[in-house]
Each structure stands twice: as C-alpha cells, then as structure tokens.
Amino acid sequence: MAEFEGKHPNYWFLFVLLGVLTGVEVWAANWDLEKKTLVVILVAFALVKAGMVALYFMHLRFEWAKGKILYVIVGAPFILVLVFAFGLLPDVGKFTDFLPF
Amino acid sequence: MAHAQSLEQPFAMGPQMTNGKFAMWLFLGTEILFFTALIGTYAIIRIGSPELWPEVGPVGVLNIPLTAANTFLLIFSSVTMIKAFEFATKDNQTRMKWYLVATAVIGAAFVGVQAFEYYTLFHEGFHPGSKELGEHLLEKGFTAKGLGMFASTFYIMTGFHGLHVTGGVIAIACLSVQAFRGKYGKDEHTSIEAVGLYWHFVDLVWIILFTVVYLV
After folding, report:
1. Do A22 and B72 touch (CB under 8 A)?
2. Domain boundary assignment for chain A
3. Which residue in B86, B120, B144, B212 is a FRET match for A58, CA 20 to 30 A apart?
4. pLDDT at position A54, please?
C-alpha cells in the first residue's frame, strides 16, 4: 500500500473541520425553524460529514485509479438503500403531513 | 515463447487490492444494509406515529452536550487510526504503535461515556417498559407511555453501534499488541488498513446516528 505515501491528506485539518461542523450542527438544532426545514439542514450536515469520512479517512477519494470494483461494492448496497427508502415513503406520506403526498 | 512470457507476467485478475481489504469492503457493504434497516425503521416509526414520541423530542430527554463531546471523541479516534496507518506505510514504528494505542484508549473512552449515558437514562426511568420516571423527566411533562417506543428504538440503534465500537476497540487492542511485537511495517499493514476501514465506518455511522437520534 505504498501508493498512499505522499498522498495522505491533512487529517488534522479534516478533524478540525469535522469538529467545527459538529459544533455548528448542534447549534443549528436549536434554530427556530420549521421542523421540515430543520430536518433537511441537519441531515445535510450529517451527510457532508459522513461523506468526508468516507472520501478521506476511508480513502474512497483515492481508490478510483486502482479500479472501480470498490465503488461497485459500496454502490450496490446504496441502490438497495434507495429502494428501501422509496419503499417506505408512501407509508410515511400516508400517516403524516410530513410529505406532500 | 509466448507461453514463457505469460508465465513471467501473469495476467492480474480480481480487484487491485489485498484480500483482507477486499473482504472488509464486502463486509462493510452488509453493514450499510444493516444500519440502513435500523435507521429506516426508526424513521418510519418516528414520522408515521408521532403520538408515540415525546413532544419535546430527543433534545428534552438526552444529554446533547455530552453526546456531542463523545462524537468529537470518536472523530478524533478516526484521525489517530488513520495516522497509525499512515505511519505504518512510512515504517515509522514508534508513531504507528502509539497512535494505535491512542485509538484503542479513545474508543474505550467513547464506550465508557455511552455506558455512563445509559446508566443515567436508566436511572431516570428512560427504558422500554418503564413505569416510573425520574424527576428530571416528570418535570418536563413526560409520561411513561410516551417514552416506551422512543426508548426501544434509541437503545437498539445506539446499542448496536456501541457493540460495533466495542468490537473495534478489541480489534485495535489486538493490533496494538501485534504492533509492539514488530509485526507491522512498510510491507505488512493490511490488518491495520482493514480494521481502520471498519473503524472509520463505525465513526461514519455514528455521525448519522447522532443527527437522526439526538438532534432531529
């Protein structure tokens, strides 16, 4: 795995960034906003942070050159996740006005 | 002649990574589905049955500052883990070993804080099937009926995650012991990379759980 030599990103900078984002997220949870808007904002924060961990700590950002199989492994469950999520949406919309249908 | 050449340069089939790393990614694929099922079920119960939830939401029950600090701790442990891998690839034995030890210690601290949180919440009567609530929850106008489903989903999601962290801490502790025995270095660090992937995934899941369970 010597291919990572000299290519490691600045992990301490990423750590500070993730810490700041977590702090802002906790602060944002107390914003006086409509619930739907707040949920979208908080989930967006979480996805950005999770994406940073996957791309830089799990090195997905740097694996492209070595082959695409890894993205198939990671992508396949996400397709099932989307099927799962969209399968749930009608039930969520049926029981509540959280969704516009 | 062509035959001899093919023996010298065999055609490389399969993924361009070690077996250990490939196996770990396959395992993480199943873990994505596992945690998605948990979070998806939580979402459908939470959004579909709002009457089963305390009106004030998780913020009124759970200790957000403590958990935010714990989140910070887990992210920190991800950095120490990746630094251990980085120094393994650079054959810096001393730093690799101590970053591994630091990761295990910080991970154990995360589990410790979670255990403290569970103890406090149980003491307050925040658990499935609770009939008596503590003063802290009663003052906020909670009833035991409204907390049962919330408590069940909370403990299932955070509990399974906690078990994953505990497993990770044990694995990293084993790596640390092997590192002090001189097993890892520039040419052999697949185990550190594979366990590191697992550890970062556990961190990633917690980032999602913290938002979904504690903040939303």
Report:
1. yes
2. 10-61, 63-101
3. B212
4. 93
Q: pLDDT band at residue B27, thresholds of 50, 70 and 90?
A: very high
Beta carbons within 10 angstroms of residue A75's beta carbon: 11
HSE (side-chain half, CA atoms, 13 Å) at A37:
6
Span A28-71, pLDDT tens digits = 988 888 888 898 999 999 999 999 999 999 988 887 777 777 88
On chain A, the residues whose CB falls within 8 A of the CB of B50 are 96
As a whole number of angstroms, the distance between CA B13 and CA B131 comes to 61
In chain B, what is the straight-line distance between the N-terminal and C-terminal CA atoms, in Å?
68
Dihedral, B73, B79, B81, B84 alpha carbons, nearest 10: -140
Of B146, B156, B129, nearest to B41 by C-alpha is B156
Mean model confidence pLDDT for chain A: 82
Cβ atoms < 10 Å from Cβ of B97: 21
Distance CA B13, CA B20 (A): 16
Q: What is the pTM of this model?
A: 0.87
Within 10 angstroms of residue A6's Cβ, the number of other Cβ atoms is 8
Residues of A whose CB is below 8 A from B49: 95
DSSP line for B94-139: HHHHHHHHHHHHHHHHHHHHHHHHHHHHHHTT-STT-----HHHHH
Phi, psi torsion values for B64, nearest 5 degrees: -65, -45
